[in-house]
Amino acid sequence: MADPKPEPSSSIPDPPPCSEPTSHHLTIPTGLTHDEFTELIPSITQFHTYSVGPGQCSSLLAQRINAPRDVVWSVVRRFDKPQTYKHFIKSCSVKEGFQMAVGCTRDVSVISGLPASTSTERLDVLDDERQVTGFTVLGGEHRLRNYRSVTTVHGFERDGRIWTVVLESYVVDIPEGNSEEDTRLFADTVVKLNLQQLASVTEALARDAADGNNKPQVM
Question: Where is the stretch described as Disordered (predicted)?
């Protein structure tokens, strides 16, 4: 049975007082070409701009994936199965009768070795047409308070080649006793490793699909 695809909608909180907008649209993320970045600036401005208040930090990361956009989105959109590519997640549970729509929640268990054990998260946006999703951390046993993230999936085609760029950004409170640099380094590392795993998973899916299409027909 195909996954339900809700109407595009979102639940984005109001900006904090005394906040300033991020400038992710001014700096090319590591791994992107200038041409890719130029094409993505409108999406970065629309979906990856945050109002950052005192005691918060934000970042934008990018991952190029050698797989079609729809293949990548089919994995990214599954709010109920983040462990498919987020390998720091041990398990994810949702309530009985779960429907993937804005406002639904998931309870995540994190692998040992990280300064976290559980996280309760709410789906803020799921737009299948524009391929945008995002969530907010509501609670749990961890140090990343008020963590909010947005992920967008973008298809490219040049000279007969097809590939995808995934952008993921976040804003988060800086824990007491930590510096902005330490907080960003930790969060960036987790996001970067997740995006690398997403590339491995979806490129394998694309190869399997291509191999299946190339198999000889049995008469």
Answer: 1-24
Among 59, 114, 37, 84, residue whose Cα is nearest residue 194: 84
The predicted model scores a pTM of: 0.86
- Low-confidence stretches of the chain (pLDDT < 50) are 1-2, 6-7, 216-219
- d(Cα 156, Cα 69) in Å, to the nearest integer? 8
**What pLDDT, on the 0 to 100 scale, is given for residue 214?**
58
- Report the relative pairing of strands 9-10 and 20-21 from DSSP bridges: unpaired
Radius of gyration of the chain (CA): 18
Annotate 116-156 with three-state secondary structure. Answer: ECEEEEEEEEEECCCCEEEEEEEECCECCCCCEEEEEEEEE
